[in-house]
């Protein structure tokens, strides 16, 4: 029997240059936009679980209550997180995604992928059913890009298109800062 997989949705806010964090890997003040935070947390409330790299959990009062796949190269096989009964530690070099998902013990629903760079990149290949890209006007010229390769010779939309995603919808998220929310999805 084929292993089940969830619906997979990605969530990121980027600077005008496509950065999710500054050079010191901190989350830039300029990207802390209340309307985006509200959209993000409400979206995570729809999720059955979250996937994030070791430095990218979403924060907020509900973080500890969410089921979670934490990506790390520090483990050689899928194991329960000794520090969090709701999380598994997954090294994608040693086990396929479906196994990590199965280990979480969630039957179906949506997995919210919340970064950072390599995690957003990895799930481009696993396949997003939707990617929500909030675009802020603020400039963060250097740092951690939303996907590997962004900022050198590619924009976020170049990378999304290269992976078969198309722009489905754009709407204003916050008029004061001119932040737009783009929803990308698979072709067809
Ligand atoms: N603007 C946004 O939407 C947004 C979204 C997410 C994060 N951020 C910000 O971005 C910064 C962190 O970004 P980041 O890219 O450095 O963080 P990250 O992906 O959360 O953390 C990197 C760590 O995750 C693990 N990891 C990532 N990819 C992996 C893979 N393919 N296989 C195995 N392990 C993997 C590794 O952990 P080990 O070291 O344990 O091996 C790696 O050191 C923070 O400031 C965060 O606030 C912003």
Q: What does it look like?
A:
The protein is 20% helix and 30% strand. The protein is globular. It has helices spanning 34-46, 97-104, 117-126, 156-162, and strands spanning 7-14, 19-21, 49-53, 68-71, 79-80, 87-90, 110-113, 130-135, 144-145, 165-174, 179-186. A hairpin with a 4-residue loop joins strand 10 and strand 11. The chain has one domain: Dihydrofolate Reductase, subunit A (3-Layer(aba) Sandwich), CATH 3.40.430.10. With 188 residues, the chain is an alpha/beta fold. The model has no long low-confidence stretch (mean pLDDT 96). The strands form two sheets. It has a nine-stranded mixed sheet with strand order 5-6-4-3-7-1-8-11-10, sandwiched between helices. The protein has four helices and eleven strands. The chain binds NADP nicotinamide-adenine-dinucleotide phosphate (NAP). The site of NADP nicotinamide-adenine-dinucleotide phosphate has 27 residues, from strand 1, strand 2, strand 3 and helix 3.
N-to-C SSE string, H for helix and E for strand: EEHEEEEHEHEEHEE
Number of strands: 11
**Which segments are poorly predicted (pLDDT under 50) over 5 or more consecutive residues?**
none
Radius of gyration, in angstroms, nearest whole number: 16 Å
